Amino acid sequence: MIEKSLAEIAKMAGGLNDVRKFADVKVKGVSIDTRKMEAGNLFVPIKGSRTDGHNFVADVIENRGASAALWQKDVPSPPEHLPVIIVEDTTTALQELARSYRNSLEIKVVGITGSNGKTTTKDITSNLLAQKYKVQKTEGNFNNHLGLPLTLLRLREDTEVAVLEMGMSSKGEIEFLSKLGRPDAVIITNIGESHLLDLGSREAIADAKLEIISGLKENGIIIYHGDEPLLRDRLQNYHGKGILKTFGASHDNDLYPVAIEPWENGNQFTTNLGSATFFLPVLGNHNILNALAAMLAAEFLGVSFEQMNDGFASLKLTKMRMELSEGVHGEKIINDAYNASPTSMNAAIDLVANLTGYRRKILVLGDMLELGPLEQEYHYKVGISLDASKVDYVFTYGELSESIARGAKEMLGENRVFAFHDKQKLSEELKKYVTNETIVLVKASRGMALEEVVKALQ
């Protein structure tokens, strides 16, 4: 992580005041959260809609171990007796500090964006690259205008490759993040329906995701889902500074699966490039596509296909991404409750529908958020697409998911579909239907907190 003197930090962050009195104070790491403060941290107070971090500056320095803090110029009464750097805007200063630090590092960067699969692809890419390099990756969901700068500032000076997830909620955000991270390789996993509420169309989402190219270094690589027309059409006349590589299910791609064999805890597969057999310990064919994207990035940075199985074998995904566990009655539970869109939900349902070895298959589905004016229709389509011969019961949670239940009842019948607005009642009813021969999928947007249902079964 960044380790500098206060004088150096002030210069990098655009400090406005005279800090000579505290010039030799040592800063180690940066935090914007008083609850996660570590000794030696620089505290960056952010002015929020409900709280203002400036109210905690004195406390974190005097009592919680912070060595210094930034202070926004328009906030009155900066504590002059403490090591404080005054800046025009603390968010901008944090970003500029990260930019300066990143530019000082001799490091390769992989940037990853997409509507679905960013975090899984990040995890796989990191593991593959770790077969040759010292790697750090975005932790949790630190992938926005605050999270990515914090991720950069956590990079160790001996780190050789950083794998950075780049998220967005509106146009222009990924361009900013890409120019901040300056990637050598970029991956666009897919274009789905997430952020339709903000951007209005899948075409606009595709344009926003393609902003990741803007910060690409000379002779870098652009890896994208070649089965997606919105990406393929936009890149067919690309004449920029990067090379193009595609992955996908169709044989038109540079890398595609030739054979897939599902196992209880993952998939074995081969690709069109060579005869090697790979085992990905993650459920779902869609995750093989994420693995293919990661393989192209790793190969570009010098990891051979022969090394990749070792990277797959040690893979541990971020929590609540196709996380397989067991309930108290021996039922298997797939916890995919971190996020959801129609694309990812249909992929997860398709996975469960085609799993073998279970006598009962149950879907627990919650609201998919940020889908815009057609949200009810998207939910209904999930329900109406279910195959009654492959799914036994459906439990829904939330107002929007009533539309899933409505569609599901048309396919499965009234007595196999249950709609709830209370998670505890849902969990109590669900327990009546699980046995040691049951597989349960739990899937919803993050705001629905459906992991509480998973905990109730365990």
UniProtKB/TrEMBL annotation:
Enzyme class per UniProt: ligase
A cellular component annotation (GO) from this entry: cytoplasm
Recorded GO MF terms: ATP binding; UDP-N-acetylmuramoyl-tripeptide-D-alanyl-D-alanine ligase activity; UDP-N-acetylmuramoylalanyl-D-glutamyl-2,6-diaminopimelate-D-alanyl-D-alanine ligase activity
Cited Pfam families: Mur_ligase (PF01225), Mur_ligase_C (PF02875), Mur_ligase_M (PF08245)
Localisation per UniProt entry: Cytoplasm
Annotated TM spans: none
Pathway membership: Cell wall biogenesis; peptidoglycan biosynthesis
Mur ligase central domain location: 112-298
Domain Mur ligase C-terminal positions: 320-446
Residues that bind ATP: 114-120
Catalyzed reactions per annotation: D-alanyl-D-alanine + UDP-N-acetyl-alpha-D-muramoyl-L-alanyl-gamma-D-glutamyl-meso-2,6-diaminopimelate + ATP = UDP-N-acetyl-alpha-D-muramoyl-L-alanyl-gamma-D-glutamyl-meso-2,6-diaminopimeloyl-D-alanyl-D-alanine + ADP + phosphate + H(+)
Predominant location: cytoplasm
Record's keyword terms, sorted: ATP-binding, Cell cycle, Cell division, Cell shape, Cell wall biogenesis/degradation, Cytoplasm, Ligase, Nucleotide-binding, Peptidoglycan synthesis
InterPro entries found in the cross-reference section: Mur-like_cat_sf, Mur_ligase_C, Mur_ligase_C_dom_sf, Mur_ligase_cen, Mur_ligase_N, MurCDEF_CellWall_CoF430Synth, MurE/MurF_N, UDP-N-AcMur_synth
Domain Mur ligase N-terminal catalytic: 26-102
Catalytic activity, EC: 6.3.2.10
Entries under SUPFAM superfamilies matching the protein: MurD-like peptide ligases, catalytic domain, MurD-like peptide ligases, peptide-binding domain, MurE/MurF N-terminal domain
GO biological process: cell division; cell wall organization; peptidoglycan biosynthetic process; regulation of cell shape
Record-stated family: Belongs to the MurCDEF family. MurF subfamily.
Annotated function: Involved in cell wall formation. Catalyzes the final step in the synthesis of UDP-N-acetylmuramoyl-pentapeptide, the precursor of murein.
PANTHER family in the cross-refs: UDP-N-ACETYLMURAMOYL-TRIPEPTIDE--D-ALANYL-D-ALANINE LIGASE
Name listed for the protein in its UniProt record: UDP-N-acetylmuramoyl-tripeptide--D-alanyl-D-alanine ligase
Organism, scientific name: Mesobacillus subterraneus
